[in-house]
Amino acid sequence: MALNFATELKKLQQQFMEMGVNTNEQLYLASKAFIEHDAELAQQVIEMDPSLNDAEINLEKNAFKLMALQQPLANDFRLIMSILKASNDLERIGDYATHIARTTIQSVDDPHWQAVETQIQAMAEQLRQMMEQFIDAFFYTDEKAAYEVANQDLQIDIKYAELHKQLIEAMIQNQTFVRANERYLSVIRRLERTGDHIVNLAEWVIYAGEAKLVELNPGKTDKKLVQQELDQ
Fold first, then answer.
1. Nearest to residue 117, comparing CAs of 61, 49, 25, 37?
2. Residue numbers in the chain where pLDDT is lower than 70
3. Angle between the N-to-C axes of helices 74-106 and 178-210, in degrees from 0 to 180, rounded to the nearest 10
4. Closest Cα partner for 185 from 158, 212, 215, 165?
5. DSSP 8-state class, residue 222
6. CA distance 77 to 75
7. What is the pTM of this model?
């Protein structure tokens, strides 16, 4: 029974990692479609979403089945609970990717602001790297790496604040591009929220490894940090 439990736990970990990789791919493709104004690619992203939702449901079923198999030890229980909680964050990131893809299709004929899109691309690329680092941290139960992932979200918050201010000011000064700028605001908001969920993912790595529930979102726990960076 113990051997079977260990085997099934490894399968659950692998299933979760695959979900993480697929979520990151969906986010990458959604951002790419938006920047390149590629409605066809955006539609492909939208069509990926049901499979990600199914993956979360299957993962939950397998996790609960595993806990029913035998009474897991404390560290195994924490790992299973971390996977359960983190899978919800992955699903939410997938939802944001789908939203960005839908926005891409709606905005194909809108005027484009290259300078803003370049900043959005940089924001999306940093999130992609954070997701990759999270997946590695989860695989190795590397708490130090998880802290490093979470700390990067402050830069996402700063980029969001800078872009938000820039877009609002542009809308006030020129009413011509209000709709296009509203779409930019919608996309950067989803990217900023993606950063928050990646922080959540990092927190679950730490819970699994250290049995500690921590709050690691620096831009949310101390809002002055973002403003201090903007004022420099």
1. 37
2. 1-3, 218-232
3. 170
4. 165
5. -
6. 5
7. 0.92
How many of the other CB atoms lie within 10 Å of CB of 54?
A: 10
Task: State how many domains the chain has.
Answer: 1
Tokens (6 digits) for 112: 């484009």
Element (H, E) at 93: helix 74-106
Per-residue confidence (pLDDT) for residue 225, from 0 to 100: 60
d(CA 230, CA 10): 44
Task: For residue 175, give the DSSP letter.
Answer: G
Q: CA-to-CA distance for 229 and 206, rounded, in angstroms?
A: 27
Residue 211's alpha-carbon distances to 10, 14, 30, 65, 77, in angstroms, are 20, 21, 35, 22, 10
What's residue 177's pLDDT? 79
Q: Containing domain of residue 50, as a range? A: 1-231
Helix (H, G, I), strand (E, B) or coil at 73: coil
174: domain CATH number?
1.20.58.220
